[in-house]
Amino acid sequence: MGDDTGSERSETQTAIMEATYRALCEQGYADLTMQSIADEFEKSKSLIHYHYDTKEELLVAFLDYLLDGFLAKVEETDDSDDPRERLDTLVDILLSGPEKSEDFQVAMLELRSQAPYVEAYREAFAANDAHLVALLADTVRDGIETGAFRDVDPERVADTILVMVDGARSRSVLFGDSDTVAHTREAIDGYVRSHLVAGE
Amino acid sequence: MGDDTGSERSETQTAIMEATYRALCEQGYADLTMQSIADEFEKSKSLIHYHYDTKEELLVAFLDYLLDGFLAKVEETDDSDDPRERLDTLVDILLSGPEKSEDFQVAMLELRSQAPYVEAYREAFAANDAHLVALLADTVRDGIETGAFRDVDPERVADTILVMVDGARSRSVLFGDSDTVAHTREAIDGYVRSHLVAGE
């Protein structure tokens, strides 16, 4: 996993992604334009247009960049062969979100809410989500094989964990209650113990 | 609970709320204007302006109208004194959402994503949420008193249930996977059994 992470992204493209991140933090999604991204970019605006025809195309690339960032973080943090520890690590990283910045989380919630209207976004979010489901489900599958977990449906467990992650993140962005994430962490732990862990 | 539900809403105001519902289904939030609501309203546009100065003010009233609809549904459905049955009923109604229309759920997700930018929306969503937390927590509290539930933190249980409800609804809107809601219903049931129910 992750061997091709970022391999197709040039230095310029990475700089454009970083400019997009800053622009989203500054002004959210609704007012985001190619110009506002260019304003955050050190080099010429024409370079942005050279790589991305439209704002949509750029944001699809940005969602892919976020997924790569997540996968890199997983690879860096996850040094365990134990499926339960590995599952814990994935949940921790998922709950902490792609970035700590609250403005960015707000912008991402907004972008996500546009997905039903914009097919390219919808496909990009679905592709990222399928990746997360597969990562979680593979870990659950490993645990079933080693006997650490019961014979549950791995994809379904992944879906349920992601329901809790998404709910916690959207509620904490909306209501600014940081306890929600900590409570959800414990609820997921309870779910893993009561539903997955063999012998508990 | 619910004695004052809708008591302050005139027939005209209710008709404006229904027009707002149709307009949101038709075009979502981003393109919603007082004019597009007026287009769905049988009477004169000036009547809308007489009751609501701005689109924001109208949508805050609309969120209150949705909460009243939810409370009316709870009152109509909930005929049990048993705290666990009552909790089940609340979860069922919450998961089924205010309206079945998918277009409407999409529009609500969009409106919700604007809450961090618009204080009036944020306050209205927070007020509705506080109402839901109180309803759930009161039911849990009743269950603790009767001995049906363990001595848990009622508000925290309410928060965790709402995390799962919000996550399931946003994921099912975004990915169109109807299994998510059914799976989440079972996950909440598992949570209630393992975390709340005494003797299980």
Low-confidence segments of chain A: 1-6
Architecture per CATH nomenclature, i.e. the level-2 architecture of the domain at 64-196 in chain A = Orthogonal Bundle
Q: Biggest interface, and residues per chain?
A: A-B, 40 and 40 residues
Shape of chain A: elongated
Q: Give, in order, the helices and strands of chain A.
A: HHHHHHHHH
Number of strands of chain A: 0
CATH topology of the domain at 64-196 in chain A: Tetracycline Repressor, domain 2
Rg measurement of chain A, Å:
18 Å
- Termini gap of chain A: 31 Å
Helix coverage percent of residues of chain A? over 70%
Helix and strand composition category of chain A: mainly alpha
Query: Beta fraction of the residues of chain A?
Result: under 5%
CATH superfamily of the domain at 64-196 in chain A: Tetracycline Repressor, domain 2
Mean pLDDT of chain A: 90
Task: Specify the number of helices of chain A.
Answer: 9
